[in-house]
Amino acid sequence: MDYEDIEILFAEDSMEDAMLTVRALNKSGFTNKLLHVKDGAEALDFLYCRGMYSERNPKSHPKLLLLDLKMPKMSGMQVLEKVKSDENLKSIPIVILTSSQEDPDIAKCYSLGANSYIVKPVDSNNFFNAIKELGMYWMILSQPAF
Questions:
Q1: Band (30; pLDDT cuts 50, 70, 90)
Q2: CB neighbours of 39 closer than 8 A, spacing ≥ 6?
Q3: 72: in domain
Q4: Taking 80 as the threshold, does the pLDDT of residue 46 lie above it?
Q5: pLDDT grade for 96, boundaries at 50, 70 and 90
């Protein structure tokens, strides 16, 4: 895979949620440049060109980072905090895509610099539509800072 063309970095440990999200983005035409990683540590490896991503160009950034909050190894909140505190990465829009409706999680994510916080709808049709609109907004309408 050519990691230089990745536009959406998607960190999600639930394979079921990942498949639904990828399917919705695919139907919207946004998955040809998507990379799904299974935890926060792998997301940071990609962004910092470490491990299996060491050959990747460090100046090539995704246009969007989709993060689940509750992941093994490193949580989405930890990834959010790391990315938004890094001068080279902080302009990447980060959308939290999670099942947590906890007010402290929402407030903390926004205070750390999340651009959006979306609670995954339980109903798969609503989830599909939410992802489709998310892709449309961030990949077509929103203008990147870099």
A1: low
A2: 11, 13, 71, 72, 73, 74
A3: yes
A4: yes
A5: very high
**Count of beta carbons in the 10 Å neighbourhood of residue 23:** 15
Compute the half-sphere exposure of residue 127: CA atoms within 13 Å on the CB side of its CA: 17
Pair 128, 24: CB distance under 8 Å = yes
Q: Which residue has the higher pLDDT, 90 or 142?
A: 90
Number of neighbours of residue 127 by Cβ within 10 angstroms: 19
Total domains in the chain come to: 1
* Residue 4 to residue 1: CA distance in whole angstroms: 9
Short-list 133, 77, 70, 72, CA closest to 100:
70
**Would residue 121 be called left, alpha or beta, if left means φ above 0 and alpha means ψ between -120 and 50 degrees?**
beta
Percent of the chain with pLDDT over 90: 53
CB distance 34 to 63 below 8 Å? no
CATH code at position 81 = 3.40.50.2300
